[in-house]
Write a structure and sequence with these properties.
The chain has 207 residues and is α/β, with parallel strands linked by helices. The chain contains eight helices and eight strands, in the order αααβαβαββαββααββ. Strands 1, 2, 3, 4, 5, 6, 7 and 8 form an eight-stranded mixed β-sheet that branches.
C-alpha cells in the first residue's frame, strides 16, 4: 500500500478510531496507568501518532509540556477538539510526520509512540528519528498492538489485512522489545496486556 493510501485510510477512519481501540483491547486503562508512571516527573514530552488523543491526557498529567502530533489532519482535528474539551493547557497539537520531526536534537525528555510501530514501513528510520530528539537518558514509551502474540490475534490480524488495514509487521512482545533494544534503547519495563490484540507495553531509555 502506498504512503498516500495509508494516510488516506487514517483520514477516513479518524471518526471511529476510539471505538476500534476499545473494541480491540480491554487494557487501555492499564496502558494509561503505566504510561503515567513511566513519564512521572518529565519536563517536556513528545507524542507521535497521537491519533484522537486517547493517551494525550495522561501525558498532560505527567509532563510540564506536551507536543502531541499525528500525520493525518482528520486525526489532529479530533485531537485538538479533545485537548480543548479536557482543558489541557500544557498541550500543543501539530500535524507532523514521524520521519520528519521538525524538532532540535535532544530536545525532549520523553517520547510516547503508542500503537504505531507495527504500522511503520521503515521501523528503523522511525526509531532513529525518535532517538534523535531525545535527550541523553531520555525515555521512550511504546505500547503497541502485538498481532503475533496469540493464535487468536494472528487470525484476527490476517482477517483485518483483507479489509485494507495498513500494517507492515506483526510483533510478538519479545519481538517488539528486540526492535527497540536494537535501536539503541535500554528497556526498563515490559508488560503484556490482554485483549483481542494483546498490547506489548515497552518502556526504555536512550543508552
Amino acid at each position: 500500500m502506498s504512503e498516500q493510501r495509508e494516510r488516506g485510510y487514517w483520514e477516513r477512519h479518524a471518526g471511529r478510531y476510539d471505538r476500534s481501540v476499545r473494541l480491540l483491547t480491554r487494557s487501555w486503562p492499564e496502558v494509561q496507568r503505566l504510561t503515567g508512571e513511566a513519564l512521572a516527573g518529565c519536563e517536556r514530552a513528545l507524542e507521535v501518532a497521537a491519533g484522537t488523543g486517547l493517551l494525550t491526557g495522561t501525558l498532560a498529567g505527567a509532563a510540564r509540556e506536551v507536543i502531541a502530533t499525528d500525520y493525518a489532519e482528520a486525526m489532529v482535528a479530533q485531537l485538538e477538539a479533545r485537548v480543548r474539551a479536557e482543558g489541557l493547557d500544557n498541550v500543543r497539537c501539530e500535524t507532523v510526520d514521524v520521519y520528519a520531526l521538525p524538532y532540535e536534537p535532544a530536545s525532549f525528555d520523553a517520547v510516547v509512540a503508542a500503537n504505531v510501530l507495527h504500522l511503520l514501513p521503515d521501523l528503523e528510520g522511525a526509531l532513529a528519528a525518535l532517538r534523535r530528539v531525545l535527550k541523553p537518558g531520555g525515555r521512550l514509551v511504546a505500547p503497541t498492538f502485538c498481532h503475533d502474540e496469540t493464535f487468536g490475534a494472528k487470525v484476527l490480524s490476517r482477517l483485518a489485512s483483507l479489509t485494507g488495514f495498513p500494517q507492515h509487521r506483526r510483533f510478538t512482545v519479545a519481538g517488539l522489545r528486540g526492535a527497540i533494544e536494537g535501536a539503541g534503547f535500554e528497556v526498563a519495563r515490559v508488560e503484556t496486556l490482554p485483549g483481542r490484540f494483546p498490547i506489548g507495553f515497552v518502556a526504555g531509555r536512550v543508552r
